[in-house]
Amino acid sequence: MKICIINGSLHGSTGSIVLNLASDLINNGHEVLLVSSIPSPAGNKINTFFTNKNRFNHIFFKLMSKIDGRDGFTNSFMTRKAIEEIKKFKPDIIHVHNVHGYYFNFALLIDFAQSNHIPVLWTLHDCWILTGRCCSFDFNGCNKWKNACGDCPFKNAYPRTILFDRSRHYWILKRKLIEYEDLQLVSPSLWLSNLVKNSGLAKKIAVINNGIDHSVFNCDAPKLVIDGLGRKKKLIGFAAYVWSDKKGLKQAIEISAIMSKKGFQSVFLGFEQKLDGMPSDTICLKKTNDQKYIASFYSSLDCFVNTTQEDNFPTVNIESIACGTPVATFNVGGAAEMVINGINGYFSKKNDIPQICANIEKITNTRYSRNLVSESVSKLNIDQMLKNYLALYENSRQQ
Asked: Which of 22, 187, 275, 277 could be 193's S-S partner, Cβ–Cβ 3.0 to 4.6 Å?
C-alpha cells in the first residue's frame, strides 16, 4: 500500500508519532511519502517533501496567517507543489495529521483528493477542527465554537491573529470540507472523539490511541548521570517540548516549590536554565528529540508530574509509565485516559494543587513494581497503532 502522511513538523510529540508510524509502515513493506513544513534538524531517511524549505518561507506564511487567521489555508503555491508530488506518488490513502503550522492549504488537498477519489484519514491531535481559528478553546474557557465562532475574544491564542477576525468564515469552511464522503476522522482520545460526536461535526470518527516505541521506553532505560542530581532526595520531573501556560508552567513551578519544602528535588525537561520561582536545587535540561535520553529522564524519576491545562492523549504520560515511573496528572482532556489510579499513578481535578501534591507523596511512598507499572500501557505501542491504522486504511479503500 502507498500512504501519503501530512503533518506540520517532524519534532515534538506529534512529529514522533508521525515518524514512528511512517517507519513502521515502511518496515512492514508499505511505501510512504511524508509532507511537512521545515526539515528536521536531525533529518530523516523517509521520502519527504517540505513546503517551507527555507526559513524565509516559513516566516512569510506565518505572517500572512496572522493577518486574518488563515492558518491551515495558506501557502497555496507550495501546497500545489506538494500535490504534484503526491500525484506522482499515486497514494492509496492520504493520512493527514496537523494542518496548522503555517505550511499548508487543507482546502486544496481536499479538492485534489475528491477529484481523484482518494480516501483521506485525518487524525485530530487537538481541537482545531472544531473552531474557526484556535486549537485550545478548552484551555481558554471559550464556547463560541459551538455557535460558529466570530468576534474571537482570544485572537492572541495560537495560531495568533493580529488584524482581521475571520473565525466564522473558517468555521464554516472547515465544516464544508469535512463533508467529503471519503474522509475518515480519527481521535487518539475518547475525550476529543466525544466532543466531535456531540458537536454533530462528523458522522464517523474512530478512536486510535497514540502508541510509543517500547524498545526505547521501558524499564531497562538507564538513569541519567548529571551533576547536582541528588540521589538522597526523591525526584519529580516535568517535561514539555515547548513550555507555555497551556502546558501548565505556572502550576509546575508552584508544585516544585511546595514539594521542595518536603524534601523533593525537581527536574524540568525543556529549559536551558532555571526560571524565577523554581527551587534552588532544580535541574533544568534543554529540550531534545533524543528518545533514549528522554527515556533515561523518566527512568531517573520517582514520579512524573504532568500539569497540562489541555491535552488530547499525551505521549509523555505513556512514555513515563512505560519506563516504570508512575504519573501524577490533572484530569483534563484525555490526559488521564491511560492513568489507572493506584496502579500506574493518580489523576486529580484540574489545578487542584493540594491534591496533586498529595498524589505525588502517595506515589513516592508506595513501593511500585516498575515492571507492573510499565505493563499497564503495554498495548499502547507502535505495532498496535499500526494495525489499527492499517485496518482503517483497508476499510477506507473498500468503501
From this structure: 187
